[in-house]
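Example 492.
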Amino acid sequence: MLGSVLIANRGEIAVRIIRGARECGVRTIAVYSEADRLAPHVLEADEAYPIGPAPSSQSYLRAEALIEVARRSGAEAIHPGYGFLSERADFASAVEEAGLVFVGPKAETIAAMGDKTEARRRMADAGVPIVPGLVEALADPERAEAAAAEIGFPVLLKASAGGGGKGMRVVREPEELRRAFEAASREAEAAFGDGAVYLERYLAHPRHVEIQVLGDEHGRVVHLGERECSIQRRHQKLVEEAPSAVLTPEEREAMGATAVRAAEAVEYRGAGTVEFLYEDGEFFFLEMNTRLQVEHPVTELVTGIDLVEWQFRVASGEPLPFTQDDIELSGHAIECRITSEDHLGGFLPSTGRIAHLEIPSGPGVRWDGGIVRGSEVTLHYDPLLAKLVVYAPDRARAVARMARALDELVIDGVDTCAPFHRRVMDEPDFQAGDLSIRYLDEHPELLEPDGDDDEALAAALAAALLEDEYRKGRAPRIGRAAGRTLSAWQRG
Ligand code: MV4
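Predicted structure in complex with MV4:
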């Protein structure tokens, strides 16, 4: 096993990796920006080093500074987490050239999967079904017209350098194609410094289903089942679950085997994710993510496999000791991303100091958090504060458990999307597992403002009066709802 690791990240994922490393007996080395001097990942690591001012361009994204800290601290490896430098092939190469272990796949794998047309070529060659369309960038709008005529409308223009939806354009008729081509190309150039675009058949109502894979340095690859991640807003996932409510065992096996083939085609090492679009019983390769993902806990809960532990074991050169047949799924897990965004105000980012924090607990509840009371939430970083994850024997019980856990959660000081999640748990289509990437377009009521503020004030006043009566011995007890309303009101 590795002796030590530098975690080139912050927030909940840095804390998660530190916990995993500690359980493996690996010494943990944190880095922090000026805004994160007292952050949980700094306090929980064995050692911590400053790397610059708050903006990530001057701290968490400074590849050379991170490698220099690794050298100075005697770290043997660097774990990049997700975001930041995690999918930068040049960073992975630089880490290895410095004689350190990169906890992730080979730089060549990262580079190939980062280029979306290259990824499609590699997958098509490996016999992985891709969305019908091109595997080369379009040289000009004329060629786009010819290709679209062949594929049939609607088509989707995508950036070759893309991901995350930037430079994407749906085109419904031939007359729109030229303008859309130019707009997509311009947007791709601005976002990625590369205006190359290609096109695919547009799927109107798919689910986003992804397969977790794990590979070692000795050529073994297994899959750990799927995650359903359809509930998203503007390419930001909000709720994820495992398993998917709709895959049959046969579909799971087919998708899993396809993901393993995809991973083998790029000699995948470590933990990775193969994303698919699933529609009407068909699935198509979308992208491969060469990192540990935010939503990895739901897979850990249904498989019992600790992904961070296996990242470290694989990075240490250990062979995977289990085969596909050894991996069994049981129960159901749901994750809600708790972000500092106000769902009532168009998911606008909210900032401030965490004044009060009550973390849900009890059976089947997991909290992967990066905040404590007193934490300052700024605009410098991703708004993800924590992930609330539940596990139960079946989906209906998991939904009920998540609703209960969300009721226990109290975060004061910044607005969060937790009230949005609480509504989702009550929503009939969600409860029925009837999801697609258009779920929120089809349920705009979930994003509408709450009932009257006056109602909340009246409830708080009633609770205060009730408490007064109780203290004077005239009321037998304070109900749970009144008690919570009151304490929320007292905290102001
Ligand atoms: C698609 C698609 C429909 N048809 N491709 C969005 C970001 C990028 N990673 C790929 N994306 C999509 N590609 C075809 N041929 C719809 C999306 C898409 C999407 C995919 C997964 C999760 C959320 C999404 C939200 C909007 C659009």
